[in-house]
């Protein structure tokens, strides 16, 4: 019995050394076979049980089984250590086909409306305008009264929009113009800003209308700002955005916050101004503009005798629709990747 105990401990000590020395999966496997295989050393020890007396056999059998599980544990520990240092199981050369195409990574991109807004901001930045932003939830005072649209003003009808409590309180802004008020209250002239952002109107959704759309607004105020400055800036913008070949024209219009007011058209970018299915008469309306109304300057404590200014506003969706010949406004909001990935 003493002999077999000694043999068991010898085998264990040898196994500890050999498993420790195994440097890769294949040498580990041959060590495993040498000890735990069908002709391995543990099995040899089992074979010696027959030489023992019947009283000694159960105890010796238990010790040999114990040895077997100790060696199995040595193997598992070494196997785990080799696996970790190799960074997991390696694919065998037969299963790794390096010529298979990889899984494509789909890159996102900037939404066409955000892209157009950036482009427009960049054009005006080149003329000295800086971009400012304001809240989409705005006071009625900033959204209407300061912009020369008192409560009883008929022009307010088209803008009557999403009030939070009642008509004298807080609204989702119906234009980006209240940011002009905020900017003028926060600083002294001269001032040159553009304001991109979302706006909200009580319009039913169809191919050219939405309850929500994006505007970009501009304002320049100083001691000698004239209508000539307005026409120059917006003419430059028209050429920069639609192409150097376009010409612009201004038609008289009415806005409560500017006087005089105008709408600007660009010559049709599809027919060159000859008249076609898109434009009809050769011109495409792109924006509204005018000289800042004295009442607006008074509302922000600018002296209209000392300062003048011009302002303009345009719909970003509308400009994009013209430029890219998109016939339905709703496409911008439906998140259809097939549409969006074209830009
Ligand atoms: Zn045309």
Please provide a written account of the structure:
By secondary structure, the chain is α+β, with helices and mostly antiparallel strands. The chain has 2 domains: 2-85, no CATH class; 112-340, Bira Bifunctional Protein, Domain 2 (BirA Bifunctional Protein, domain 2). Helix content is 38%, strand content 19%. The chain has 11 helices and 9 strands. It has helices spanning 2-21, 25-36, 41-47, 57-85, 112-125, 140-143, 178-186, 227-242, 294-299, 316-324, 337-340, and strands at residues 130-131, 137-139, 170-172, 191-200, 212-222, 248-255, 258-267, 283-292, 308-315. The strands form 2 sheets. A 7-stranded mixed beta sheet has the order 1-4-5-9-8-7-6, sandwiched between helices. It has a two-stranded antiparallel sheet with strand order 2-3. A hairpin with a 2-residue loop joins strand 6 and strand 7. The chain is elongated. The structure holds zinc ion.
Q: What is the strand content?
A: 15-25%
Determine the fraction of residues in helical runs and give it as a percent range.
25-40%
Bound molecules: zinc ion
Radius of gyration (CA) equals 40 Å
Tally of helical runs: 11
Q: Give the overall shape, derived from the CA principal axes.
A: elongated
CATH architecture of the largest domain: 2-Layer Sandwich
CATH class of the largest domain, anyone? Alpha Beta
């Amino acid at each position: 019995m003493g002999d077999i105990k000694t043999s068991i401990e010898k085998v264990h000590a040898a196994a500890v050394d050999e498993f420790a020395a195994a440097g890769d999966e294949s040498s580990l496997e041959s060590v495993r076979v040498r000890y735990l295989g069908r002709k391995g050393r543990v099995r040899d020890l089992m074979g010696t049980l027959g030489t023992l007396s019947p009283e000694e056999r159960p105890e010796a059998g238990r010790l040999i089984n114990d040895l077997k599980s100790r060696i199995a544990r040595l193997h598992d520990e070494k196997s785990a250590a080799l696996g970790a240092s190799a960074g997991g199981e390696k694919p065998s050369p037969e299963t790794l086909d390096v010529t298979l195409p990889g899984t494509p990574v789909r890159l996102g991109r900037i939404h066409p409306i955000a892209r157009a807004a950036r482009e427009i901001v960049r054009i005006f930045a080149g003329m000295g305008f800086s971009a400012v932003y304001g809240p989409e939830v705005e006071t009625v005072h900033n959204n209407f009264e300061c912009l020369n649209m008192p409560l009883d003003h008929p022009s307010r009808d088209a803008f009557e929009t999403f009030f939070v409590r009642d008509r004298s309180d807080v609204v989702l802004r119906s234009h980006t113009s209240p940011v002009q008020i905020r900017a003028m209250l926060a600083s002294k002239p001269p001032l040159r800003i553009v304001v991109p952002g979302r706006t909200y109107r009580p319009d039913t959704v169809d191919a050219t209308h939405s309850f929500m759309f994006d505007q970009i607004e501009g304002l320049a105020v100083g001691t000698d700002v004239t209508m000539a400055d307005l026409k120059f800036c917006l003419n430059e913008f028209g050429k920069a955005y639609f192409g150097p070949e376009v010409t612009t024209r201004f038609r008289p219009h009415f806005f409560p916050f500017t006087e005089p007011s105008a709408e600007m058209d660009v010559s049709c970018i599809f027919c060159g101004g000859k008249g076609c299915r898109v434009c009809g008469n050769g011109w495409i309306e792109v924006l509204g503009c005018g000289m800042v109304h004295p009442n607006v300057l008074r509302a922000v404590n600018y002296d209209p005798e000392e300062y003048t200014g011009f302002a303009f506003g345009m719909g970003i969706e509308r400009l994009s629709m013209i430029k890219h010949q998109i016939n339905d406004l709703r496409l911008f909001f439906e998140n259809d990747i097939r549409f969006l990935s074209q830009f």
